[in-house]
Write a structure and sequence with these properties.
Number of helices: 22
Structural class: alpha/beta
Shape: globular
Strand content: 15-25%
Number of strands: 21
Mean pLDDT: 89
């Protein structure tokens, strides 16, 4: 194409899913293989060689340092760039040439989406005079249509992409960080074009969310099948399976993100010997592999059923959200809270804003069983108790927490009373709750207090509604927004300069746990506030709590 359209695809540990992305891209669009660059991150024991041979003309770039690799690729890209992720499958015909023509002729349009169309409802007002195009103002209340910057399958101008990328001050460590650099609070400033566009009749892609590879907060994913990346690697590389593009494309969809029902496999016909002996041997191996996986599938199924039936409820004693708030009102306590991020650290993994640190992991494990007077430890009530009032996203997330439940049962003290981690993120957790009363009670606890807030640099700057405005006075101790534990000694020293009569509120991820504990031991009242200030702002703005919005909420600031 004369205008030099480039397609930049991100992949980590998903060769089977990336095969489906590439196969469906070339089947349904006018893209050619020389347009595509795959920036891939290797995961241990995951094999990309077969995939590379199948799509030889595609440019393959092994990730060295994501931000540097990304900037080099986009700088050398064509006039228009479409990003892609390996969990996308295209389902309808679309033309990148026509999409780029529309961007060229309509300067007010920021991006041309391949995942949106009138099948995704509700649909905003159409501003286009072209019968085949839907154009709308992206600053609108309609779900999915108010998300202008995304990495699934939208075509952008290279100039806009390069400008926004080079302006970003926060480290871009992986695609999650890259997408999160444009937030609902800053996008009006950073995106200079007010409209978006897509094919009118139907979106041309779905995102099949059956597994996750980046260690981020609360990404929605469906684990109802054995679709972890290692099982899929075996199915693809050893057993010759690919996703059945034609059958997936034949399914009607009214959603962008779909689940395991779209994860349909087909068996490649080629590569199987006609020799009966070899065929029997292959079938025996396949049956043995399935037999070995069967107990895992059974365990996963029954673990979920056990959770849904409340069989974990008596494993640990956890106050629910309302009981936790009542305790805060009646007693002068300090508290720190554990969630999936802290569990990931303790299990040797990194999360977006804190790289794994052995000392921090050891510290957290100790704190999980700490029983000091006046200090309460939080774990999520809904991890162990099925709660009917959860929003759909959190309810789905809760069902897939077998690893976390097992970890908590093994590492918590059954004789302790824990408080609810969700006390600081009620709006993001529940669908039905007396939010008005809850925030009145929380704000009353802050009202008139002298407060010191320890938080990452800039993380509270974009709040339109500042919950701490009810405080008598507010002082700040500024920390790095990423990997704060590396400066722990300095942060503790700075926090100890504040008067003991002040309430210390800490917004600092896993580092907040250690800091709250050390401050409490020295006579301070310290609250690990987590997402409370953001959650209050979201509530006051009445933000929708869709899967996309909640995922965005938990991404790094």
């Amino acid at each position: 194409m004369e205008k030099q359209i480039s397609i930049i695809v991100f992949s980590k540990g998903r060769p089977m899913q990336l095969h489906a992305y590439l196969e469906s891209l070339f089947l349904f669009s006018d893209a050619t293989r020389d347009m595509v660059t795959v920036l891939y991150c290797e995961a241990e024991s995951i094999r990309y060689e077969k995939l590379m041979q199948s799509f030889g003309q595609v440019k393959w770039v092994k990730e060295s340092k994501f931000e540097n690799d990304l900037k080099e690729i986009i700088t050398g890209a064509g006039e228009y760039i479409m990003f892609g992720c390996d969990d996308v499958v295209f389902t309808h015909k679309f033309s990148l040439e026509k999409a780029s023509d529309y961007l060229r002729d309509n300067e007010q349009v920021f991006g041309y989406s391949m995942r949106l169309g009138e099948n995704i409802k509700p649909v905003p007002e159409n501003l286009s005079s072209d019968d085949a195009v839907l154009e709308w103002k992206w600053d609108c209340p309609y779900q999915h249509y108010n998300y202008p910057w995304e990495l699934d399958c939208t075509l952008y101008r290279r100039g806009d992409v390069v400008r926004m990328t080079m302006e970003e001050e926060t480290a871009i460590k992986n695609p999650n960080y890259y997408e999160a650099m444009i937030t609902p609070d800053n996008r009006k400033e950073r995106i200079i074009r007010p409209n978006m566009a897509s094919n009118k009749q139907s979106g041309c892609a779905v995102v099949i969310t059956v597994n996750r590879v980046q260690e981020t907060h609360q990404n929605g994913f469906d684990d109802s099948m054995l679709t972890d990346i290692y099982s899929l690697d075996r199915l693809y590389n050893d057993e010759g399976n690919t996703l059945d593009i034609e059958r997936i494309a034949s399914m009607d969809n009214s959603m962008i993100h779909v689940g395991a029902e779209y994860f349909i496999l087909r068996k490649e016909a080629k590569g199987y010997s006609t020799s009966s002996l070899r065929l029997k041997k292959k079938k025996i191996v396949e049956f043995a592999n399935k037999l070995m996986r069967f107990p895992k599938r059974i365990h996963r199924h029954f673990e979920r059923k056990s959770y849904e039936k409340g069989r974990y409820a008596d494993k640990l004693h956890i106050l629910n959200t309302d009981e936790t708030l009542t305790l805060m009102e009646n007693e002068k306590i300090s508290f720190l809270r554990f969630g999936d991020g802290e569990i990931a650290i303790m299990r040797g993994e990194s999360i977006p804003f804190q790289e794994y640190d052995a000392k921090l992991a050891k510290h957290l494990r100790k704190l999980l069983r700490t029983n000091l007077d006046g200090l309460k430890i939080g774990i999520p009530y809904y991890y162990m108790h099925p709660v009917n009032r959860l929003n759909d996203f959190t309810a789905g997330f809760a069902k897939g927490l077998a690893v976390q439940r097992r970890f908590l049962c093994k590492n918590c003290d059954r004789d302790m009373t824990y408080v609810d981690t969700a006390i600081t993120q009620v709006y993001q957790t529940y669908k039905k709750y007396d939010f008005k009363k809850y925030y009145e009670r929380m704000q009353k606890l802050l009202s008139g207090r002298d407060v010191t807030i320890v938080c990452g640099e800039g993380v509270l700057d974009r709040l339109a509604y500042r919950a701490f405005d009810v405080c008598k006075s507010v002082e700040f101790v500024t920390a790095p927004s990423m990997n704060a534990y590396a400066e722990y000694d300095r942060l503790l020293k700075e926090a100890l300069k504040t008067g003991k009569e002040r309430l210390v509120c800490i917004v600092l991820g896993p580092t907040a746990k250690a800091l709250a504990y050390d401050l409490h031991k020295r006579g301070y009242q310290a609250w690990d506030m987590g997402h409370y200030f953001k959650d209050y702002d979201a509530y006051m703005k009445k933000k929708p709590r869709t899967a996309a919005e909640i995922t965005q909420f938990y991404k790094p600031d």
